[in-house]
Write a structure and sequence with these properties.
This protein is mostly helical. The chain is 62% helix and 0% strand. The protein has helices at residues 3-38, 45-52, 58-77, 88-99, 101-112, 126-131, 133-145, 158-165, 178-183.
């Protein structure tokens, strides 16, 4: 066999291995996404949320859990880069989920392949606080999840609307039209571009 033939076979083998790895990673990502979408919350978790918010019905806690699921999907789809939580009430549910330590650890391992730490805002690095990249990532993927144009939204994605919808004390409020807010002297709170 000639040197050229050996080189060609080596290149083909390398390309085949590369394609196999890419296929495996894509399949693994789909499996992780399916797992997050279909995950059944630990018994009693949603009840913990109603201890803090007794006015919530099961339908409302279910919708909030859907918002938390949207956050987890945004983290997964962002390549497991830093993401910021845009909802106080979804964050409250995340706090409760973390207290189910074994369930949360198992969820993270299967959903992300590693533990997703919860970092309070006061512990963030200065660049994470100022550039809003984590919030923009969540915005982008939450919009895509609901078929909303992230650059020209017609409405808020669920995760960004929860606090306003349920009038959460100290919750986060977002507007779809940041440009009009800026013209009127307020800073816009909705990220407008892909990370």
């Amino acid at each position: 066999m000639s040197t050229n033939a050996i080189m060609l076979l080596a290149i083909i083998a390398i390309l085949a291995a590369f394609i196999a790895v890419k296929f495996h990673l894509k399949l693994q990502e789909r499996q992780r996404e399916t797992y997050v979408r279909n995950y059944i919350w630990p018994p009693g978790l949603l009840d913990k949320l109603t201890e803090k918010y007794p006015q919530f019905t099961r339908k409302e806690t279910s919708l909030i859990s859907h918002g938390l699921r949207q956050f987890f999907l945004a983290y997964l789809k962002s390549g497991r880069k830093y993401v910021a939580m845009p909802s106080q009430v979804a964050d409250d549910l995340w706090h409760e989920f973390i207290l189910y330590t074994r369930d949360y650890q198992a969820f993270c391992d299967k959903a992300f392949g590693r533990f997703l730490h919860h970092t309070p805002a006061v512990r963030l690095q200065p660049d994470q606080k100022s550039n809003n990249a984590g919030l923009r990532r969540v915005w982008w993927h939450s919009c895509k999840e609901e078929s909303i144009n992230p650059r020209r939204p017609s409405r808020m994605p669920l995760l960004f609307a929860l606090d306003t919808k349920y009038k959460i004390p100290n919750g986060y409020v977002y507007k779809t039209d940041c440009e009009s807010l800026k013209r009127n002297g307020a800073s816009g709170t909705v990220p407008r571009q892909h990370p």
